[in-house]
Amino acid sequence: MAYKRLWVLLEGNDDERFFEKVVKPMFENTYDFVRSWRYAQKKSTKAKDFLRAIKSMGSDYFVWGDINSVPCVTAKRERLLGHYNQILDVENIIVVIREIESWYLAGLDDKNCKEFGIRTFKKTDNVTKEEFDKIIPKKFESRIDFMVEILKRFSIRTALQKNKSFSYFMSRI
After folding, report:
1. Which of 124, 117, 64, 110 shows the shortest CA–CA distance to 88?
2. Are residues 61 and 115 located together in one domain of the fold?
3. d(CA 118, CA 136)
4. Rounded to whole angstroms, how far apart are CA atoms 22 and 44?
5. 121 and 87 assigned to the same domain
6. Nearest to 133 by CA among 122, 123, 147, 121
7. Do 53 and 117 belong to one domain?
8. Which of 1, 32, 99, 165 is the most exposed place for a label (fewest CB within 10 A)?
9. Is residue 9 part of a domain?
10. CA–CA distances in Å: residue 63 to residues 72, 88, 93, 134, 144
11. Which of 96, 129, 146 is the last residue of a domain?
């Protein structure tokens, strides 16, 4: 049986934290090796070389990025494809709408929101980093502490209902 590897290329720390706690465990029974790699802080040539290397080894991969200020998923995919000189395969690009913070909040049910003392969200598709930062309860020393606590309570079932891009991602895996 072939040794199966999966790489997930992420933008930053918040994406990596989410991946490690929520996504990685889902792949560990399918793959012998599951790792993330942050591409946004790397020089473009280094990221391109890394992507070529994992593809040449026959590793599976996903590249995920926040839609941020790009008008649509297609535009974000095209931006990533252009940036990586067509090294990427379009079907391996996952676009988070709006930003990763929307995925964090999607996993909180009404009870958990109440326990945190934050408003409930029926849908989180349009939550931005700035909106997320505004709702962080004062009892948390940092946004990272808040995110870690969210992940302890995170419900995939709830997130599937509250965020379209998370639901799309889950349907792909």
Report:
1. 64
2. no
3. 8
4. 28
5. no
6. 147
7. no
8. 1
9. yes
10. 17, 8, 5, 28, 23
11. 96
Q: Are residues 50 and 131 in the same domain?
A: no
91 & 105 share domain: no
> How do residues 152-167 score in pLDDT, each as one tens digit?
999 999 999 999 999 9
The partner residues of 93 in beta bridges, in order of sequence, read 63
- 46 and 21 in a common domain: yes
The residues, ordered by sequence, that sit 6+ positions from 11 with a Cβ below 8 Å of its Cβ are 38, 39, 40, 64, 65, 66, 100
Q: How confident is the model at residue 86 (pLDDT cuts 50, 70, 90)?
A: confident
Average pLDDT score, the chain: 95
Residues 6 or more apart from 39 whose CB is under 8 A from it?
Answer: 9, 10, 11, 47, 50, 63
Q: Residue 136's domain spans which residues? A: 101-161
